[in-house]
């Protein structure tokens, strides 16, 4: 018995050291507020939900009077790379950038991420409280608490699969306090067309879409002029109907929305912007998006 008792303190210290190391590596938030210039990561665990890792970067100046920018990664689920692209972009801006990571183990496939978790793999609706979309507002509140940002509304950027997340978030979460959004180089879209079935249109969608409210959103559809490759591009009948390339599909998405707004005689605030010489690359698209969000 005595040898076992003698080993116990050493084992306890080993457990404590390992626990501390894991916590440091995961970047769990502490009571210490984020400071200008800080970068890091933490585990965000809203009650009753799967914890996710979040990467962040804080800009400079009076961040309290700035805003939170949420950055959504693409199909590679590489949130750290996206955060890294934004570090130089916020260096001289009073922003707190957070890039949530929805990994493939816990959020597999198109349904759980690109479609915001609104439906399961079989297409059956999921309760809104369990949507992937539902992570964003509490995450922004935590980012505000850590950074001191007073502004409740936030900006939103996504590239590729992240752009799919972004435009559908605006469609299906109408009360979200998004000030300005940029959806860059999405592979395919849920077009705001009541005559086309979900997920390619909004007919029989998991929840109705308030089209006038949607068209009043400040959304930029951002496209790379050279994003014409078909790698990782959805090619089923519904997606192919939207065009042969990402730039074709993005232009069509914007035009369908414009036509629908005209038919409804409702204001249309969306813009379409093409970035010359850029293909399917999140870094230059992030730089273009930062300029849009800074306006």
Explain what you see.
This protein has 295 residues and is α/β, with parallel strands linked by helices. The protein folds into 2 domains: 1-30; 32-293, 3-Layer(aba) Sandwich (Rossmann fold), CATH 3.40.50. 36% of the residues lie in helices and 17% in strands. Strands 1-2-4-3-5-6-7-8 form an 8-stranded mixed β-sheet, sandwiched between helices. Helix 2 crosses helix 9 (282-293). The radius of gyration is 21 Å and the shape is globular.
The description of the largest β-sheet is: 8 strands, mixed
- Helix fraction bin: 25-40%
DSSP strand content: 15-25%
Total of DSSP H or I helical runs spanning 4+ residues: 9
CATH superfamily of the largest domain: Alpha/Beta hydrolase fold, catalytic domain
Q: Helix/strand/pairing class, anyone? A: alpha/beta
Please give the order of strands in the largest beta sheet: 1-2-4-3-5-6-7-8
Shape: globular
Radius of gyration: 21 Å
- State the name of the first-level CATH class of the largest domain: Alpha Beta
Q: Work out the number of β strands.
A: 8
List the helices and strands in order. HEEEHEHHEHEHEHHEH
At CATH level 3, the topology of the largest domain is Rossmann fold
Low-confidence stretches: 1-29
CATH architecture of the largest domain: 3-Layer(aba) Sandwich
Overall pLDDT, averaged? 92
Which oligomerization state do the chains in this entry correspond to? single chain
Number of domains: 2
